[in-house]
Specification:
The structure is a homodimer of 343-residue chains. With 343 residues, the first copy, chain A, is of the alpha/beta class. Chain A has twelve helices and twelve strands. The N and C termini of chain A lie far apart (65 Å). At the A-B interface, helix 4, helix 5, strand 2, helix 6 and helix 11 of A face helix 4, helix 5, strand 2, helix 6 and helix 11 of B.
Chain lengths: 343, 343
DNA sequence: CTGAAAGCGCTAACAA
DNA sequence: TTGTTAGCGCTTTCAG
């Protein structure tokens, strides 16, 4: 049903090659013919078929992005900015959400292969080596997140958690906190390990203390944060501050603390990571370790674009900085451990 | 770089036609050859090129979705569910976010045309007639939201606000509220008009009252809700309850009310629309008019799929029901108007 | 049951 | 400066 180049050519009384040249701004066309052709294109409001272009040129001008949780505002924002970048650069976005199911990561990769995307952003941490292989083998550059390793065709972006955590913990120490808990991410993920390790290192470095029962696993979501906080608050002694692996987790913790009638930050301080917009909306507004989405998205894009020019260029390591954002969920450590109401 | 059908054919000692037949499950192939071919396909992990298929068949198996604000959790969830539906049905999603800029709606539609999508979900309300035309003219079915009109190739999904609002207002009346304010959506949008009108109708029907200064324009975002609430609270007399055109707006209103030291719901009740996950997380949890995302997404998909079978089938009208979700942001009306602290 | 061949809409080398 | 032609990877008649 849509118009083809040949029809435009016929209408303009030229060959389709000429129409192609006009569209692609070749200077081997008379201004006169060019104008005539453009007029027809306008009138018919003709748009070339990208699949044909793809087939011919071998480039789809599509990048794929595979994310674990579209509901997490951090990823949403990232996708939003990334899509903007792509549109500015005349590329398209193929979005795949896995909901943390590794089987869906598999499907998603197949979709990417099918559509012959020019690059893949892989934000799910559960990476089976075989999957990456099939992409690289097809010459499709990949950029991963917090994978802590690169390879031919595979770049990695890693969030500089260590210095950020160090800063956050130092800040807590300044407020008088000595006993700090941590709610981790989903067990088994590389990022979870990294965030936890950064926290532990910072604690040691600052000479503070934590303990087994104060370090609980979460799932990067609100519900996980709630449950984890419940566990921490059920300990015979509780910390004066709790750091969470991301903001959603921290928000869940906040919620549980409220339910237990703890005042924040008077009774206990809570901090998160990411700085999602929600962090500034919950009560009290959340102190958090901000990860710049714009820089992040930009690096993702740069990594893929560089690889397109030269496949060997993939395999770089990028760093995203973090910055401490102090809000009202953290405050001076209470003089003594508060009593916790049991729900 | 990726393998082509011809190579598979060569390796299997058959023609590419046979390979094609095997892949598409034709029964005109011996079980024997079929097995042999499938083996090679496995080994090479060959995936056919969808652009070539598209070119041949004239169907891209891509649906496009154009949304105004990817940051709004309502849309995020909708996109998420819609994407799931598409994957289940072996289709792809082309995502475009306009950030409320109508110029970007234009660009997005062009992108859809370029990729020859099989259908477009248009969730931005600022519809210029010409744009829809160009899609229909290309035989691309469209489904809009709250556009309140259908046309050849253009279906519409509308949220049944009237009964929902009626229910919500009746509920407020039961709580003793007589004076109710409203924070509308962005001026000029059809949905804003509809939501506002549903509210006004309900107010009249229930015999309650509202007034000029209590009906303020918002922008469907948190900041707009804050500003609007500020205006309402600056009136000489303030309502005992405020309904917002969506949850983000209501959350903004909540925030302003907090800042003015109003207790919710003791001093003033606040309700929203949508029932985004955040509604249950803010303090106090928000009473809201829930719109089922799953049903919504399903209708979007059905509308497009029906149109694919028969273009004339597009042009249907669908209805999404709403349901009242009562939480803690609404309560009995205060005996007298509370005093408002000026910030 | 299988293969040869044409053609989807475009681009790029080559000819004119 | 323009047109002719081949071919990107696939599907689908039509022959065999």
């Amino acid at each position: 049903m849509p118009t083809s180049m040949r029809e435009i050519a016929k209408l303009a009384g030229v060959s389709s090659a000429t129409v192609s040249r006009v569209i692609n701004g070749s200077n081997l066309v008379t201004e006169d013919t060019s104008r005539r052709v453009r007029k027809i294109i306008q009138d018919m409001n003709f748009v070339p078929n990208s699949s044909a272009i793809h087939l011919k040129k071998g480039k789809s001008r599509i990048y794929g992005i595979i994310i674990p949780d579209l509901t997490n505002p951090f990823f949403t924002e990232l996708v939003k900015i990334f899509e903007e970048l792509l549109v500015e650069n005349e590329r398209e976005l193929l979005l795949a959400n896995t909901d943390f199911h590794s089987s869906r990561t598999q499907t998603s990769l197949r979709r990417m292969l099918l559509r012959r995307v020019d690059g893949v952003v892989l934000l799910t941490s559960e990476l089976e080596t075989g999957l990456l292989q099939s992409l690289v083998q097809n010459g499709i550059p990949v950029v991963t997140a917090d994978h802590y390793r690169t390879a031919r065709g595979v770049s990695d972006i890693l969030v500089d958690f260590a210095p950020g955590m160090s800063q956050l913990v130092a800040y807590l120490k300044e407020l008088g906190h000595r006993q700090v808990g941590f709610i981790a991410g989903t067990a088994g993920l590389v990022t979870s390990r990294v965030r936890m390790q950064s926290f532990l290192d910072a604690i040691v470095k600052q000479g503070l203390s934590s303990r087994e029962g104060w370090i609980v696993e979460g799932n990067y979501r609100i519900d996980g944060g709630s449950v984890a906080m419940d566990k921490i608050l059920s300990q015979p002694e509780i910390p004066t501050a709790v750091v969470a692996a991301n903001d959603l987790t921290a928000i869940g913790a906040l919620r549980t603390a409220h339910q237990r009638n703890l005042r924040i930050p008077e009774d206990i301080s809570i901090a998160g990571c990411d700085d999602i917009p929600m962090a500034d909306i919950v009560f009290p507004p959340l102190t958090t370790l901000r990860i710049s989405r714009r820089e992040y998205a930009q690096m993702l894009f740069e990594a893929l674009r560089a690889a397109e020019e030269d496949f060997a260029k993939a395999g770089q390591l990028f760093h995203v900085p973090t910055s401490l954002v102090v809000r009202q969920s953290t405050g001076p450590a209470p003089a003594r451990a508060p009593s916790v109401a049991t729900t």
